[in-house]
Amino acid sequence: MDFVAIDFETANHRGDSVCSIGMSRFSNGLEVERYYRLINPVQPFHPGNIRIHGIYPRDVVNEKRFDQLYPEIRAFIGEDSLVAHFAQFDMKCLQMTIETYNLPKIKNEYFCSCILAKKTLTLSSNKLVNVLDYYGLTIENHHNAADDATACGEITSKLLQPYDYDIKGFLTDYHYQLGQLFSHRFGPDKNKKKQVPQPNLLAIESLQPSHPFYQKHIAFAGRIAGLNRQEAAQMLTTIGSFFEPSLTYQTDYLIVSKSEWQKMGTNLEGKLVEKARQLQGQGHSLILLPETEFFTIL
């Protein structure tokens, strides 16, 4: 999946006072192109905003306005989906500025890396720097639009890695819909009815206490073929196991998807698998199983 991570800095509290833009294009988890421009907002700067991003009026007085840069901004985005960390702010800036200058509206879909982190991780705070730290990543100049956009793209790739870098897997698991500029926000899909798995999911018979998974705590790394989180939880309950939404000290088995299993032992190894190895090194009797062996045992 290709997407464009985007970040704006503003001169004041108004969404259409953008004074810089950063964009970073990612393809299958890797950054392939970057864009950064200072922008003359033709509006006054508030001292509070200057303290955040360090951009002064003198820095942009000779820069182009947003409407003058819009053709190249629009060309860079193309048809790709947009992502931002706390997208509510950045999409508001983009839409308001387009409307202020009466420019042609774009209809790109978008999503929010902050919401992805909130749904899939268990952090006390989902701010950009916190999520970066979780993945062992750093940022040189926080609140520089270029660096923030790249950082957003990097954590988005990490968050989508279990879904083979495709947002569709997340949308299915959490019953979300992509946002669309000038149409609707990224959020729960209220028109999609959640399917409740039946007790006989995957035609699994009732298991005896002697079964390897009976009364065991089981977590998943990556997206298991043909199985979303809701189905996995129902299936494990049916067979007498406990579904773990994340890896804990109680976890007995970590079921690793085919794509994540292939990355084991490489620099692309997932954070969950890495954590499982650490627990094993600390003496925990945690077993890693590829998804094919998991279904065989079932």
TrEMBL record:
GO terms for biological process: DNA replication. The keyword Hydrolase applies. It comes from the Bacteria. Keywords: DNA replication, DNA-directed DNA polymerase, Exonuclease, Hydrolase, Nuclease, Nucleotidyltransferase, Transferase. The keyword Transferase applies. Pfam families: BRCT, RNase_T. GO terms for cellular component: cytosol. SUPFAM superfamilies: Ribonuclease H-like. Residues 2-165 form the Exonuclease domain. One of its GO terms (molecular function) is DNA-directed DNA polymerase activity. This is DNA polymerase III polC-type. It comes from Jeotgalibaca dankookensis.
